[in-house]
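Any chance you could type out some protein's one-letter sequence along with its backbone structure tokens so I can compare the two?
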Amino acid sequence: MSQTFSYDAVEYPAHVYPQLHPSRLAAIARLHGVEAASPARCRLLEVGCGDGLQLLTLALAYPRARFVGIDLSTAAITRGEALRQALGLDNLQLVAGDLLAWSPAPPGFDYIIAHGFYSWVPDAVRQRLLEVCRDHLAPVGIACISYNALPGCHLRRMLWDVLKFHAGTASDPATRIARAKECLELLQAGLPADNRYATALAGEIEELQDRLNPSVLFHDDLAELNQPFTLDAFMREARAHGLEFVAEASYHEMSLRNAGEAVRPLLETLAADDVVSKEQYLDFLTGRRFRQTLLCRGEAAPAPQPRAAAVERLELVSALMPDAATPDAQGALRFSRPGSGGVRTDHPVMQALLALAGPRHPQPLPLPALLDEARAAAGSQQPREADLETACRFLLRAFEVGIVELHCDAPRFAADAGPRPLASPLARLQAQAGASLVASLRPSMVGLDDAYSRALLALLDGQHDRAALLAALRPLLEANTGSGREAQPRHAQELETTLQGMASLGLLCADA
């Protein structure tokens, strides 16, 4: 398994992935009738955890839960262990080891996550991962396994093959990366026009250039092992180990709206009896390249279609804002968010609910309390049960197309910057180390593009009030907005704006 050891030679960029968060996975599972554990008291295993950044965010958010991560890269685990010790996280265990030779201690796990792992390891390791899920997943536990998918990766594999040919037999990572970049430039300069092959390859090159990271290029696109799978083939293996399909972590990718309107009725009929076949045909239609498939034990009997009634026990995160101040002639309002779609509704309670939720983004809002607030704002005379049923159906449809989030016991973070702001201790450590990308408490990755933001974040230990922060940051503030007494109001305003921005990004602790 020399490919896996390459992660000791070239560090893979550490990220957290919001779609893999157990609050999101639990919500999806409950929509499909699997009563997955609350993240607040769960046991979670991550296979191929790298330096454990995602686990560090979870262990901070849920001190009563237990987390375990395993990775073959000793270097990555060493980095993560240093952070774990610095943060004093006794509810997290990081293991440097080979999955083939390791077996977790009882009890089992409520969640098992393997992201960026399945397609990049030999068949024996893939089988071992499924065995671990079979043997150590709780009765209503959820596994999330991501992998490169077919048919979309047939196109991507063309470029992989060309890059690996050009990289040749060089074993030095820097040489392989340099040759791959050289090959991309050669292809871009030399592909002929008006050629179906060239058109397809040009699209792949453009997509790779947009996300180009030397370490990712080395580990993903130049990987010795990189095996894509159809969903059908993946599920045959999963079912052979007693596991069943629940849904996809990126739930909106299951929406029939991704297919042409003419075939949606056929796919809907197919989904009623066989959701895996529906998903496979959707892949054929869309050319899907990557899946993040949720599995459970077969005996948990997941419902093929989501149940709207389950939304009542979940939390809403919505950035939707009204496009207009007042309803149109039909009494409808359209709500949208930057860079995404929107929704139109003429239901007064739904209008009030979205109008209340949007300004509180990204705070997770329990639906029962939010609904009661919306009913009062709209002056609803309908029975609460009727408005609740409408809200559950409405929010489920919005979640299915990816314009709102649903969570179960999502992490808590501050809505506003208090008198002595306290930032995530993990993000502070990252900022102190000079990182320009840090993990929030949501969690998500947050870019800190300037020295001022990084310096401010590193200072937010809950001990500094505004005056102390201004004094500590004066040189940077003066560099940004000038010096002298007349600049002091601008300094204070910039500080406040940055602090509120950090709160809105989920960087500040709720108990500050």
